[in-house]
Amino acid sequence: MLTELETKMLGVMMMVIMLGMGASLTFRDFLIAFKKPKGVLVGIACQYGIMPFLAYLLAILLGLPPALAVGLILMGCMPGGTTSNIFTYFSKGVLALSIMMTSVSTLVAVAAVPALIAFYSQKAGVTGEFAIPAANVAQVLVVLLVPTLIGMFLRKVNPNIGATIELIGSMLGILVILFLVVSWVPRNYQLLLSTPWSVFFASISLGLVGILLGFGLARLLKQDSNRSRTIGLETGIQNGPLAVLIVSLTFQGEMQQQVLLIPVLYSLFIVLTSSAITVWFRKIATREALARDNAKVALASAAVAS
Amino acid sequence: MAANLPTYDAKPWEAAYGTAIEKQLPVPRYLNLAHLVHSACERYAKKIAFTAVVPNGMNGSLSYAKLGELSDAFAVYLRDGCKLQPGDRVAVQLPNGLAYPVVAFGVFKAGCVLVNTNPLYTPSEMAHQFKDSGAKVLVIVDMFADKLAEVVPRTDIKHVVLASVSEMFPAVPNLIVRGVQKVWSKVLPPIPALAIPVQRLGAVLQAGQVDGSAKKVRAWWQTVQPQDVVALQYTGGTTGVSKGAMLTHANMLANVDQVLAMGRSHMGEDECVLTALPLYHIFAFTANFLCFLDIGGRNILIPSPRPVQNLQRAVENYPITWITGVNTLFNGLMNEEWFTAFPPKHLKAAIAGGTALHHAVAERWQIITGTRIAEGFGLTECSPVVTFNPLSGTAKPDSIGIPVPGTEVRLVDDMGELVPVGAPGELIVRGPQTMQGYWNRPTDTAAVLKDGWLYTGDVAVMDAQGYFKIVDRKKDLVLVSGFNVYPNEIEDALTKMGAVLEAAVVGVPDAKSGEAVRAYVVKNPDFAGELTKEAVLAHCKTLLTDYKIPKSIVFRDELPKSPVGKILRKDLKSEVKAEFNKK
Q1: CA distances from B353 to B116, B350, B432, B505 (A)
Q2: ipTM confidence score
Q3: Fewer CB in 10 Å around end: N or C, chain A?
Q4: Do A304 and B176 touch (CB under 8 A)?
Q5: Band (A143; pLDDT cuts 50, 70, 90)
Q6: DSSP states of B319-344 as a string?
Q7: Residues B360, B270: one domain?
């Protein structure tokens, strides 16, 4: 389990992460998204359609006990993580779309996540002491909107500060995971050794299959390949630290330990799987961009030479 | 045809100047470019002159006062540190960024000659340009420092200064940009060991900031005369050996006044111009860099404008009032959601140069931004602007507009005789902006400069109102039984056929007609049926008179193109040459 200090640190880090997310946004971005909402709508459909259902399905098929099932479902119901923006950036995806999906899904989360958790937990037969109170989740999400707004404001006032905290925020997303790995894994290696394969399988599949299904559904809904790759990454990459925070605020002791297992493992493996996928996506995107650029956009000197 | 003589020299275009454009150029306001810079830095001391913006929105700015100080320091480095003499050449190979104005203005103030160099040049192109110009100092962006080992020993360069893209950014953004360049994009190569000193710009500027330098620097530039050369601007790299056009202070100052005369009606005291085109190119150098400095404007410098998305933060964060660009930039911007949803709301004007501005692009731009793109025409040898569509009054589509004030333009045939109005002829220019010749190349100079007239090699027509339109490049003309055939016209006709993706037309030797038209045609992959020569010819017959119809048609999978997608007729011509030499 996490110590009280660790939980507090996690809370502070989440604040900074959300500050960074806010700094990646402008009010214009929202207006553009609302003017042409299709991309974001498709993304949100993937985010809250695919992931919770996938988590539920894995929980049922693998016959996970309630403590693990609730962790998996919670993980599936999380909004997009800010780390997806880094991966999208490095995979040369549509950064604006990724940022919009992360932010819109975080806004929608206030209402959607408590409802989805309740719905799928009940379906999976998780009740009583393992059920996560909807109010807890909503409260955490609302609190996190404050730094988001501050981030947006800072960005408007000074682009240098904005871009700096945007970067720090997204880096911290990965650092938090590293922090969890370093502090949590050594203390729990006994637990990890006795953890059945099905738990590892669920933790890895949720992200990996999520990315692939997100990509597929976006393609089906007529998004171009680059946007679909972005939606795929965004769908599969959940806000892991947020799930860890909610668990540590909701459960104590041995229970927390059990529920935390899948969110932590997911957070660890998603960095690895999405790094690999990013390298692959980047290759495809570079090839496509070159072909497109040569046809469309040219700014080198020869174009200006009369 | 002496009867036609007054036609061009009567300047029929002056009527189109209206009240917005002065017919006479003002008397020169400055002694030289250093004087222009010095005076601007004093007048607008507190205003921001340059802001460089990288794709994530991080930025750095230079005030006019700071710019004056730092460019003084660079001049001190050149004259005292490198012991350069007035007239010595300094090669500058930088992308758009804050280092560029400091270095370029320092060169002016030292009385030296600027050799603008494309940062993307290959080592052999660099070596040619540095050797040809005899540059003694090179200022290069550190991203390409790895080329130095190969280039420097083949040149007369004695000192190298390295500058970064985020030069003069605030500390934290600078650290982040350099960190990303080094660790993630891996674009910062190790600096090779050279036999000559290699210093960083920051260190050089620090050393140059000594007490009393302002007075010393002023004394240097006050002896520089208007007729002294200020820049060797290399041109012709894609068609032959690159040659340095000698542009004087007077040339550049005149062109600044000419551009300002055309743009004044749309310029106030606080203009903010988006500079996505490279400053090493003469278009942005004059239009953005010098003109907006003179009026106290702010240049928003974009180090890397590709992909166009890189411009988003700059367009969002600054109140852009002017944009200069080429067809592809305008087109690219209009393909971006963020741009079309929120076009810059303070925009007053956009000007296009370089290649032809497409009609559809210009129309869409007007609808989206509510401002016009005024197309102009220029060439390196003319500092560069020759003609311009007036911003107020009549702009004609597909036209390069009317000559700028103080410029004489004529259209002539091969014998140098004037052609009648409406007939195509080679465009020749005489004005205060025409160059002094090509550096160390008297033969090349004599071929283009005759009696003060610069022969552009472009064939144009003029209408009764004095508006010009470019027809084609003269050297691409095909001469069929004494008739001039313009490849552009035939290519246009061919691409009107749905089954044709693109086409290029060149002349081939012909026993009967001297030359014959040959068309290289690429089939449109979207076209289902088979494309036959007969079908192409039948199509041409509906649009073209007999002598213009291609005698032979060659189908190709693709056409040779420059890195920016211009079809290279010269490559096809050399193929033809090889083919007929064999016969």
Answers
A1: 19, 10, 20, 24
A2: 0.74
A3: N
A4: no
A5: confident
A6: ---EEEE-HHHHHHHHT-HHHHHS--
A7: yes
pTM above 0.90, yes or no: no
| Whole-number Å distance between alpha carbons of B333 and B276 | 11
* Domain harbouring A228, CATH code: 1.20.1530.20
The residue among B483, B469, B490 whose CA lies nearest residue B411 is: B469
Q: Same structural domain for residues B419 and B557?
A: no
Question: Given B118, B305, B317, which is nearest A301 (Cβ)?
Answer: B118
Contact B338 A28 (CB under 8 A): yes
- The pLDDT of B97-105, averaged and rounded, is 98
Please say which residue of B457, B491, B506 terminates a domain.
Answer: B457
Closest-CA residue to A94 (of B338, B78, B89)? B338
Task: End-to-end CA distance of chain B: give it in Å, rounded.
Answer: 42
B77 Cβ under 8 Å from any chain A Cβ: no
Residue type, A30: F
What confidence score (pLDDT) does residue B566 get? 66
Cβ-defined contact of B337 to A96 (cutoff 8 Å)? yes
B340 and B445 part of one domain = yes
Number of residue pairs across A and B with CB atoms under 8 Å?
119
pLDDT per residue over B60-78, tens digit each? 999 999 999 999 999 999 9
Residue B185 contacts A, CB cutoff 8 Å: no
**Is residue B206 in a domain?**
yes
Q: Does B3 map to a domain? A: no
Q: How many domains does chain A have?
A: 1
Does residue B367 lie in a domain region?
yes
Q: Percentage of chain B surpassing pLDDT 70?
A: 97
| Phi, psi values for residue B374, rounded to 5° | -95, 120
Average pLDDT of chain A is 84
Same domain, B164 and B267: yes
At B316, which CATH number? 3.40.50.12780
B9 within some domain: no
Strongest mean pLDDT among B251-255, B331-335, B490-494: B251-255
In this structure, are B153 and B26 located in the same domain? yes
- How many domains is chain B built from? 2
d(CA A183, CA B485) in angstroms, rounded, equals: 78
Would the CB atoms of A164 and B283 count as touching at under 8 Å? Answer: no
Residue B292 shares a structural domain with residue B176: yes
**Distance from the Cα of residue B172 to its chain's centroid:** 34
Q: Which of residues 149-208 of A touch B (CB under 8 A)?
A: 155, 159-160, 162-164, 166-167
Are residue B64 and residue B117 in the same domain, yes or no? Answer: yes
Joined tokens for residue B454: 């610069």
Tell me whether B98 touches chain A (CB under 8 Å). no
Query: Does residue B172 belong to the interface with chain A, where contact is any CB pair within 8 Å?
Result: yes
Q: Which residues pair with B274 in a beta bridge?
A: B300, B323
Q: What confidence tens digit (pLDDT) does each residue in B196-225 have?
A: 999 999 999 999 998 888 999 999 999 999
Torsion of CA A216, A220, A224, A228, to 10 degrees: -30
In 3D space, the residue among B384, B432, B431 whose CA is nearest the CA of residue B409 turns out to be B431
Q: Is B356 exposed, middle or buried (0-12, 13-18, 19+ CB in 10 A)?
A: middle
- Per the CB < 8 Å rule, is A299 touching B235? no
Output B567 or A239, whichever has higher pLDDT: A239
User: How large is the C-alpha radius of gyration of chain B?
Assistant: 25
pLDDT higher than 90, residue A3: no
Q: Which residues contact B189 (CB under 8 A, 6 or more apart)?
A: B143, B144, B145, B146
Q: Does residue A304 surpass a pLDDT of 70?
A: no
Domain of B316 in residue numbering reads as: 14-457
Question: Per-residue b/e over A130-167, b at no fewer than 16 CB within 10 Å?
Answer: bebeeeebbebbeebeebbebbbebbeeebbbbbbbbb
B446 and B573, same structural domain? no
CATH code of the domain containing B493: 3.30.300.30
CA distance A44 to A61: 25
